[in-house]
UniProtKB/TrEMBL annotation:
<protein>
    <recommendedName>
        <fullName>NR LBD domain-containing protein</fullName>
    </recommendedName>
</protein>
<dbReference type="InterPro" id="IPR000536">
    <property type="entry name" value="Nucl_hrmn_rcpt_lig-bd"/>
</dbReference>
<dbReference type="InterPro" id="IPR051152">
    <property type="entry name" value="C.elegans_Orphan_NR"/>
</dbReference>
<feature type="domain" description="NR LBD">
    <location>
        <begin position="74"/>
        <end position="154"/>
    </location>
</feature>
<dbReference type="Pfam" id="PF00104">
    <property type="entry name" value="Hormone_recep"/>
</dbReference>
<keyword id="KW-0675">Receptor</keyword>
<keyword id="KW-0805">Transcription regulation</keyword>
<keyword id="KW-0804">Transcription</keyword>
<dbReference type="InterPro" id="IPR035500">
    <property type="entry name" value="NHR-like_dom_sf"/>
</dbReference>
Length: 155
């Protein structure tokens, strides 16, 4: 949003701030990420699924995505969470959400521009819920401790 980009609430967006208080913002080029998402949405779901309802189909798709990302190695503890790690998880989460939504037939009926706009608006909600469910699974399987957050199945 403009508020986040400028670092000011919307009620003072058009008021020119004093130059010494301006915060430097780093811009991240997401064109490669959007091309990957466009490819996923254009090609459609990886493996067609059939279920009694869209909800069951999405649940089955999520299980397939989970199986594709199940770790074979022991759990790796992330001790550094800097810019590179954040961008890596950002990309992984966005593409995982895009892959999951590619299984939703009603979503596929929208034109590609609308689907990309929706993904940009909602991927972070999917990512947050996915991380919470992954952490719960990790705690249930005793793969991580109570005060830890398991954030990914990927290595």
């Amino acid at each position: 949003s403009m508020e986040n980009f400028l670092g000011r609430p919307h009620c003072v967006i058009f008021v020119e701030p004093d130059r010494k208080f301006l915060v430097k913002k780093d811009l991240i080029d997401c064109s490669d990420l959007m091309e990957k998402a466009n490819k996923i949405l254009t090609e459609g779901c990886e493996t067609p699924l059939h279920a009694k309802s869209s909800l069951l189909k999405l649940a089955q798709a999520l299980q397939n995505i989970d199986l594709a990302h199940t770790p074979t190695a022991p759990v790796k503890i992330v001790t550094k969470y800097g810019k590179e790690e954040v961008l890596s998880f950002f990309e992984m989460d966005f593409l995982k959400a895009t892959t999951w939504f590619s299984y939703y037939e009603e979503f596929a009926k929208l034109n590609i521009e609308e689907r990309l706009e929706l993904m940009q608006a909602i991927w972070h909600v999917f990512a947050r819920l996915y991380k919470l469910s992954t952490a719960a699974m990790g705690k249930r399987r005793q793969m991580c401790e109570e005060q830890m957050l398991m954030i990914s199945h990927d290595t």
